[in-house]
Specification:
Blueprint: E1 4-9, E2 14-17, E3 20-22, H1 29-40, E4 44-49, E5 61-64, H2 68-79, E6 84-87, E7 94-96, E8 115-117, H3 121-127, E9 134-140, H4 145-155, E10 160-164, E11 173-174, E12 177-180, E13 183-186, E14 190-191, H5 192-211
Parallel strand pairs: 1-4, 1-6, 4-5, 6-9, 9-10
Antiparallel strand pairs: 2-3, 7-8, 10-12, 11-14, 12-13
Bound molecules: cytidine-5'-monophosphate (C5P).
Length: about 210
């Protein structure tokens, strides 16, 4: 049977008014590297993707979204139909509490923003898992990455967490550690397509065990 892989990728953009938004520096490169590798292996691949400037890999279905709430809806709508679900998106942790349909006026005084938390997409998808599925998340940390990744594995109900450092965001390569319930696998610093292969090897191994 054809393997079905669902990937979230890129940043999200949280609007404040028609011309301003909160976002982050994610390029979407890791999500697209995973999508290209899954496609190369013959999988049916869907990427729920925030605003990115990179071209999507060929043969992959892209569902474009802007905000975390849209990404949440489009991912949860599809997650139960996938064998492997990978949360590679850098989802904004918060969004402005309100949206002003008129451009906010400049003022000489300081301005405070109220931010409200966004839902955790990969956690909510994993909570709705059907038997046999494998869920993969990322943990970008400035220190103690493997330890935090292990906590995320448990807290979010994931099967595999890819721990990495902030250098990943601006770079074509990534130094990653794969954390599963079986333990740690430290990978050498390598281009994202190469790391995508290692992640999919590990996810496929976990999937085989789940479905055996
Ligand atoms: O908690 P943290 O943001 O470090 O977790 C990172 C992992 O969780 C990534 O896989 C990311 O795509 C996913 N995530 C998510 N929804 C959020 C926050 C993170 O799916 N709101």
């Amino acid at each position: 049977m054809t393997l079905r892989v669902l990937i979230t990728s890129g940043p999200t953009r949280e609007p404040l008014d028609p011309v301003r938004y909160l976002t982050n520096a994610s390029s979407g490169a890791m999500g697209f590297a995973l999508a290209a590798e899954a496609r190369r292996r013959g999988a049916k691949v869907t990427v729920v993707c925030g605003p990115v400037s990179l071209p999507a890999p060929k043969g992959v279905r892209v569902i474009p979204v802007v905000t975390a709430l849209q990404m949440h809806r489009e991912t949860l709508r599809r997650s139960r139909g996938a064998d492997i679900v990978i949360g590679a998106a850098a989802v904004s942790d918060w969004r402005p509490a309100g949206f002003s349909s008129k451009k906010l006026k400049r003022s000489p005084s300081s301005v405070s923003l109220t931010l409200v938390p966004n839902p955790d997409i990969i956690k909510d998808a994993a909570a709705r898992r059907v038997p046999g599925q494998v869920f993969v998340g990322f943990a970008l940390e400035t220190h103690r990455a493997a330890a935090y990744a292990r906590q995320k594995l448990v807290r979010k109900g994931l099967d595999l967490v890819v721990a990495n450092g902030p250098a990943t965001l601006a770079s074509g390569s990534i130094r990653a550690t794969l954390v599963s319930r079986d333990g740690l696998k430290r990978l050498a610093n390598a281009p994202k397509p190469r790391v995508a292969r290692a992640i999919l090897d590990e996810a496929s191994r976990l999937l085989e065990r789940r479905t055996a």
